[in-house]
Amino acid sequence: MTVAIGTACCVAAGEEIAGDEVVVVRQSPWVLIGLADGLGHGPHAAQAASAFCRYVEEHASMPIEDLLTGAGEQLASTRGAAAALLRIDESVGELEFSGVGNIAMKAITRTAMPSFCSAGILGRRVRRLRSFRFPISPGDVVLLHSDGISSGFDLGAFRDLDPEEMARRIVDVHKKSFDDATCVVAVVRDRGAA
What we know:
This protein is α+β, with helices and mostly antiparallel strands. The protein contains three helices and nine strands.
């Protein structure tokens, strides 16, 4: 299996720079996807989100709970962020998720994926981190989105779109004008599928 990824971001009204950022690291046989939402919006939020993404890129092979802990230490000099990570192992068909704050995960999968982010702010205070592991199969769709997107939408309404278009449409239709809105979509496919 292989993972196709699409992302989209819309900057909060009145701002010139997004305080949300996505990072994707591919190290066969897995892909690591991260989303950070810096507190507030504007340049200081962007600084926190960027610090998270740089740390994830540089330490991507670490276990994801350790990666979040280390990123939290790096964000201590910033205003902090909500952040989440997904690691999808393409060789064994497994997804691992962990996060802090109000990043949401939605999925259309053969196996239910009950999960939640730990309470707190990465870079400030975090209760105990938890990670969740689930089997994943070709045809499954998983996404992360920041709180700048209304959470009550039906992911199934977008399922037939390619990942990039899906992310863009979700942001366009469900964004809140007063906050940055970011979505990253992962679609699991059979290797060799278009």
